[in-house]
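Quick entry between incubations.
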Amino acid sequence: MQYMLLIAANEADEQQIPDAEMMQVIAAYGAYSEALMQAGVLVSGERLRESTSATTVRVREGKTMVLDGPYAEAKEQLGGFYIIDVADLDAAMHWAARCPGAAYGSIEVRPVWPSENMPGDECTAAA
Amino acid sequence: MHGSSLVASSEAARVAEAAVRSSYGRLLAILSARSHDVAWAEDALSTAFESALQHWPQTGIPAKPEAWLLTVARRTMIDVVRQRQTQAAALPDLLLLSDELMEEVDSAAIPDQRLALMFACAHPAIDASMRAPLILQTILGLDAAAIASAFLVSPATMAQRLVRAKAKIRDSGIPLLVPDQSVIGERLYAITDAIYTIYTAGWADVTGAEGQANLADEAIWLADLLAALKPDEAESLGLLALMLYTESRRPARRDINGEYVPLTQQDTSLWDGQLIHAAEKILRRASALQQTGRYQLEAAIQSAHVARRISGQTDWPAIAQLYAQLMHITDSPVVAINHAIAVAETAGPQVALHMLPTVQAQPRLQNYQAYWAARAHLLRSAGELVLARQAYDVAIGLEPDITVRRFLQKQRVSLD
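Done. Structure below.
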């Protein structure tokens, strides 16, 4: 089953982190991605730029509206994601708890809606 | 579903009903484990039970009623998939189910997967307040209305929450498996806590409307099942012992006029000796496993209270000591309050009053009846009559049970 791990954290707090410490966090993410790859569960994963760089687009009654900023104001902002392919929620939670972001932000674990031609719950071996 | 919906009009109907009672959870666990869809399995199982009620009176009871029910339920599930066969995604489910259907169904070989189902119901991803209702529905087959009345919500709300929780199990991939050894202790507490919640809901219902499912009995049945499925976990035994001790005192907690009788004043000859004996045996089995825990300590405290039956005296030093141990593993204010009450018996009310948590430190206690009743009791023993009266007033105001309220009022009046 595929899950998206949505990594949310307070950007203002993150900006307070000294450079040396930030390097460690980045290294931790590198190691984490490597571990996901080694386990054969990683489908994809990316870090996102700060939410201040976001542009939100909505179309209402044929009119395109563009907003400067993320779609929702919240205490924590989406900072990155992984998509993993594992057996069940326990395995997904296990990986979520090891994500470096879990220690300073929060990880939302969301099952990916299986596409129609994908055979049910069967795990496809991820590269 | 067991209960009034099935009218036992014949032997066949009676057997069908007995099969529901004893095998509902077993069959549902098996059907859910493969399909991963509890609601779908429930629908199929209820169709199978209806079918049994229709056919058995004519054809006679099959040699293996459980196997019969399982086969019909599986066929029903396959029919449902066939109806949605346009969806390619349904195909693997169908193949799996067909494979199962081909296997010779032998009820002697029907595996017991109820423990796995209980772990799914009490999964950390399921809202804590829904774990007990889910267990009642899936393991015992209770309907939403019966569960709703025990948890003081409307039947419609409970039905909706149950549907949502089952969808969560299906959609989020909550495993229908017994978790591995590294997390099993913690996960088991989620189950024992849910069962104890069911028990306390049953215990609180003193009057117990006739014909309604007795939740205290259901909880004991579940704890007994858990202890049978997980006999190597001392806490599942501890939970069962605790509930049996408590249950043994049920006949003594109200007098012949229906008035509340506090534990220390209960007539010990009314306590159920058989239940006490069973509890003692189970608690000894738990201690032999040498894994201490909350429920075993709570059961040991009950055992010390019960000692009054033989010795004529409550073993307060032992009780105070056990509560002190319990304080190490839980920060529950309820434990702190009971600890203080036990200490009052051994070291006097002044010491106990100092140990009682304060409302300043724990604002939640402001609306907690047992806190004010304990405080009033200790202040009274310490001779602080003005403060005791005030505490009794708060306790009386917070108590929903009229008989307990009357008891507290009597205590308060005796101070004047």
